Known about the structure:
single chain, six-stranded antiparallel β-sheet
Amino acid sequence: MASHSQGDKRSLKELGAGPFVLRTLFADVPLSEDGTRDDIKINCVEYLDGHLYVGTSDSELLHFFQIPPDPTDKSTVPTFILASRLRPAFAEPAGTSNATKPGVQQILLLPTVGKACILCNCTVTFYSLPELSPVFGSTQVKNCNWVGGVDLNEISSDYNGRGESAGVTILLSLNRKIQVVSIGDGARPIKKIDFAGSTISVRRDSIACVADSRSYALLEIEQQLKIPLMSISSLDEAEPGNIVGQAQHISGSSGGLLRSNSTQSRPQTQSPEPPTHRRGTSLGDFITGVNRRQEYRSAEDEEPVSRQGTPPVIATSPKPPEETTGANPPASDGATRSQTGRATPTPRPQPGLLKPLIVSPTPEEFLLVTGTGPLEPGIGMFVNLDGDPTRPTIEFDRYPKEIVVDGGSGDMSSSRTSADPDDEGYVLASVGRDFSDGVHYGLEIQRWDTNGAESETMKHWLEPPNTGSAINSQQNVGIRSLRGTEATHFQEIVDRLCRRKFKPFSTGSLDTSTMSLRSYDSRTASSMERLSKEKELFERDTDSSSEDFPPDTTRRADEEEYARRLAGSTTRLAVWSGKNIWWAVRNPLILRLDAQLEATASAPNLASAERRDLVNILNSFRGQDAKTELEFLTFSYIRQRVGLLLLTCFLKSEDSPFSEPELRAMEEILVESLLDPRVVLSLIPGVRNEVIETKRGIWIFGGVKLTAEEYIAKGNFDKDKATLATLSQPVLHFLRRFLTAWRRKKGFGSIPDENEVFRTVDAALLAVLLELDQKSTPGPAKARSVRADLYELVDTGVDCFNRAETLIESYHRLYVLSRLYQSRKMAADVLATWKRIIEGERDDGGELTDGEQRVREYLTKISNQALVQEYGIWLANRNPKLGVQIFAEDKGRAPKFEPNQVVQLLREEAPDAVKYYLEHLVFGKGHSVYVNELIMYYLDIVITRLRTSAEAREVVMSTYTAYRALHPPKPTYRQFLTDNAPADDELWHSRLRLLQLLGGNYDYDAAVIRDRIASLSSTAEDLLVPETIILDGRERNHENALRLLVHQLGDYDTAVAYCFRGGASIYSIYQAPQSQPPPSPKGLKGPKRRDSTPPTQDQQARLFRALLGEFLELEDVSDRVEQTGLLLEKFGCWFDVGDVLSVIPDSWSVDLIAGFLVKALRRIVVEKNETTVARALSSAQNLQIQHDLIVKIEEKGPSIET
């Protein structure tokens, strides 16, 4: 979080959202031996292997030894006891007082050789580690400004486990030179470097970055080369003769200039410029002049150190923090005079000298700080080992008092929780900042390894904890990167990440929670009987798996141990202020993000802006892959907590409703976070009753658990009021989408307690969909509707089957219940449910349209013959025509029924359906054995109706009259009946079927049928004329059949066809196809009437003569003449001319039969001619045979017989 305002910085300090936090290392250090002095301050701090060394302004070196905490008590912290108080030896120049002595200025630990170098009052002394016993006799180095210059590459190698060499090379900054010394068994001078007044040095291999009171420079120790860099103060002028960025020999007197790149034996690795590149505007932007004034130095021997009013500083350890200018007193006074406007001897103002600050963030870079004044911003510049800039500059709000760097790809000893090569690099600067109550001293923290693409630098502010005095925050803050590291532990991580058992119900006992769980369904209070059954089932489920998980105490300990393993970290940064010392520890990402969540969620009502802030916190790591286990859990924890915070806001967002994008974002967060959906449901009235909490419990992150429990504690979950009906539509639709998304995770191995989770999800989703679907239009589901989702849920199967039955029944959704049974292939329950709907039981959805047809179709898909029989009989009683199709089905999965068995079964259970089944057997299957029985059924229907209904009799007689009134050509009477049959008249259709069977080629008892028909004569004569005609034809009573056809029906064409066929049938054209009947068991084919041989011409002639006689007796003269003429003209070949002339009335004109006579005479002539030709052919054939005989006789010749 960027620090744009001082108020923001204070909130960051309080919330701990920055990248570092302070943890107490040593509180209330006993600086004064007797505890009476308050003016003693901490100058420097070092730590190594449990030994803490503190240098004070009272020239004392305090050695503390760490007492490890009790390993059995996780809450204890290590303590320190005082091991020794040491006053290092130093040379005290004349004229100095205790007030002007800087005290212990530096502590340099060399653990590989077991030595320590202490700079106290400008004198270096040597001691052994860890007890600080003096070594090297009385060896001292006086007039020393700085001790350091240890090769940081060797220190990094030590952190990498490779160790250091036998001797360690250090640099001692004397007043007029730099002494290179090797520390091992002794202190051995190696060489002197001609560089006067150095006050700090940081080294990488043979390259050291040093500074005097005015400027920075790079030194090549081996080859004695110097590359001048920029001035510390950009207001300061450059020294004459120095060209920034070019190498100079400093070992001799030549002082020649060399190109910086060409003089180096080491290849350049950082600067992308060619070898002839010289420093340009990237450095010159911060330098006001090319030359600067040569600092005046006395030609006498090295001056005593007391000449400098402040001790020198090192890269990672400050000099006394109360010094703000970092320069000697005269320079400071000059700066003060310059700022107050007093006159100076020179014509231009004297710039204030700033303390040089150097650190090395990577093996190839140095970070140098320049500025204009102690209260003005400072600029951090990165240069490589050749003095060329490497990356964008960084800015400090004020010129720092001290800086350290931590982390980055090149720092293997940073304060972090894991050795990640992509670790973030930070620079921490000790600065002062103005607040409303005065200047506060703290740490300004920012990244140094950014690429400069960000439009605004992210800065963080960190102050030492306020120990109760307002003055504490106004004390200077010291900071140092220590040689040793310390393992630390974040209890806050344990508190947040340790999984705890979440109890969604107020009481903690299983029995009471079970009662709460099932005390009522989603709409109405359930009965005690159902509650008892569900509780029994619940307990059985929990007891069955009780052996699969450890007790709560064991799991709690395991979870804490696991979280504690992730909560460890290391640190190497020490911060001190007043009498207190802290570790500056990398603030884990989880605590930083959680602090931001707390800041955002602390608002009384989360408005749209706060909700966006919560989502932005997630977006800060969206798309980022977790590199460590802790980071993975961090992402999960933050997602879950953000999702839960958004959910609680959504549930009470009456004043600030969520927009659709916000709702979608919340749903996505909750699903992706993998937060146990039972936790989400436990916060929502109406569905929290579906949460299944077994003895195993619901284990979630401790921080998430706290958030959920706080909301539940404030919520009103009165079970008499908290039902689904009280939830708003947005909440219901949110639940619909959220739970649907969770159902897609079924089968994922990463879901803990999968059984309980998905039983809860299915039950809650079913309840929500049932509630939403109450407002849907009755009927089938439409695409992408709530009802379609409801069907998909039950069709794909639910884990909470028993609960689903209860819920669906409570909503009176029987069709949905049947689909639930179908998902489990419970055919009997499906049919029983459909039966309830068809018989009129309440079904609010109204989805089962054409239920009887659905039952019929479903019975073809099941293999249980008993079920097919049971519901086939039930359906045959309700809808006989449809019911018999079940028994007649050929493609069903159940074993087929024997027709005899079905007929007998229907006669006993559903007598009204027998006729329809026989129709199927006769007309559909061709089983003629049942024809006679079916004819009797039809006769019963027809005769019964005609006897009892005068209207039916009138209708039948009217059809005869209407048919006779038709003018030729007209259809047959059978076709006339078919064309005019009413849609739902059973009499009419039964008579058509009767005619079809009587006219078919079947064997039936014609005598019995005639007797049944004749029984109608007492009611009315000639009611069933076509039926009588067919029977006459079968009994060879052709004359009567022709009489009825001609005079009763007036069906002349059928009469002609009757004669032509020899009286075989009159309606055979309407028979069902008999060519390829389906296969049937033996015996189902009844005996057919033996097919008649084709009629002879004599038989046809006899019938035509009879028909001619009937035509001649027609009452209507026109019909008589017309039909007779047509008959003789078309079928004259079957008539004898003499017979026709003998019966034709003499009164008729010859023209009426002229056609017949012409054809007859022609036929006679043709017959005569044919006879003549045949006779001639016979004569010729006879002659040919006689000729052949004579030829054969001549060939054989005479024969003599004796």
